[in-house]
Each structure stands twice: as structure tokens, then as C-alpha cells.
């Protein structure tokens, strides 16, 4: 149950439209619901502002679909990550409202259209070193959009052609946060960290030849960045970077503006 649903329920109780016992029945599954194979944290949206997100990889099709279905009954916005195409097909057969993007591998369920972020709202810039990094980049960008944030993209701007990144200098400097996604040697994150004043979130990817060790080389390079203001998430974790960036954007939106 999210904050809006709880407010509506309390308003119905106050107005005498719903009895106390009926409201209690609707709330009794908080703080979690035990399905046997999963304990759904239905209280998370009240604590953190975001319902529990389903990591679909490794789950059976039936389990993933059932978890998403129960969350969809409790929330107006539900997100699943790392869903394979065959799993997404199974989920959509059970939940026709579900949308699936094969590049990001995200499954989304949304009631109503969320308001578009204001053109002047603080934004996140999602930058990727190469086209091979796009699945992780789109997981980050689409997660931010699901959360209602303003997002700009700068793709295929890796250090092998530095002029491509510098061509986006104005967008970099205007961002409230930059998510920098790179495999191979992961150098893009240090370069961006040296150009901008905002926080930079490095996302190493598993893209690269053998000595990149499935993203370990990029992870270590980002962790050892000499640029300041850089934080690093796990290999291929576009979702985690997006949630971190979302919280930075929320803080930026709450910050008072100077009146001069």
C-alpha cells in the first residue's frame, strides 16, 4: 500500500464510508505478506516512497508473475527488473496491463499516466561509453523515468573518441547527477568526474574482452578513480544507480532556490 492509498482509506474511515473492521482487514497484511516462496514487503512504499521492486532473474515464470500480480493489487506502480523475453511473455499473458522493454528487460505496471517532469526540473544525465552498454544504460534511464524523473541520454561517448563526450559538455554541466556506464577499462567515469560539479555514479558493465574479467576491471578502475565526487555501484547494476540518482534528484528538487 502506498501513501495515497493509505490516505484515501483513512479518509473513507473518517467519512464513515468504510468501517474500522473493514479498514483493519485491508491493512492486516502490513508490513508483509507471506506467499510461502516470497515475503512481499507491502510497507516499503510508505517507508521509502517506492514499492518493492521484483528482481525477476533466477525466479520461475510462475513465481515472478504471481509476485508482480500481488504487488499490482496493492500498488498503482510496479516494476520488475531483469526479465527474460520468455518470462515477460508469460507475465503479460497473466497481466495484460504489463509493459515490457526487451533492451532494458524491465517490466512495468502503471495505473494512469504520471505527470511529465517540468522542463526546468533537475535532471539526470545517463551516459554510456559504447552501444554494447545500452542494456544497462536503458535499465537506469527507464527506471528513472518510471520514478517520474527527468532524464537526458548521452550514448556512445566513450574515451576512444573524447570529442563525442565534450560535444555534450553543456548537458553534463547542467545535470544534477550523472550516471556513467562503461565496460572495458571503465575510464569514462573518471573523465566525467573530472568535468562536472555534480555527483557521478559509476556503473561498470560486463562488456569487454577476457582481461576485463566480466566487468571487474571496470569496477576496480571506477573504485580507484582519482576524480572526486564519484560513487560506484555493482557490475551491470543500472537499477541501483537509478534509485541512488532518484534520491539525489529528490533532494535537489527540495532544495530552496536563491532569490538573488
What this model shows, in words?
- The structure is a single chain.
- This protein has eleven helices and eleven strands.
- It has 260 residues and is α/β, with parallel strands linked by helices.
- Helix 6 (134-146) links the parallel strand 7 (123-128) and strand 8.
- The radius of gyration is 20 Å and the shape is globular.
- The longest helix has 17 residues, at 238-254.
- Helix 4 crosses helix 5 and helix 6 (134-146) runs parallel beside helix 11 (238-254).
- It folds into two domains: 3-110, no CATH class; 123-254, Rossmann fold, CATH 3.40.50.1970.
- The chain starts with a helix and ends in a 6-residue tail after the last helix.
Q: Which terms summarize this structure?
A:
single chain; 260 residues; alpha/beta; Rossmann fold; 2 domains; 5-stranded parallel sheet; 4-stranded mixed sheet; 11 helices; 11 strands; 40% helix; 17% strand
Question: How would the blueprint of this fold be written?
Answer:
Layout: H1 3-14, H2 20-27, E1 33-34, E2 39-40, H3 44-48, E3 54-55, H4 61-74, E4 77-81, H5 85-94, E5 99-101, E6 106-110, E7 123-128, H6 134-146, E8 150-154, H7 162-166, H8 169-174, E9 177-182, H9 187-193, E10 200-204, H10 216-223, E11 230-232, H11 238-254
Parallel strand pairs: 3-4, 7-8, 7-9, 9-10, 10-11
Antiparallel strand pairs: 1-2, 4-6, 5-6
Helix pairs in contact: 4-5, 6-11
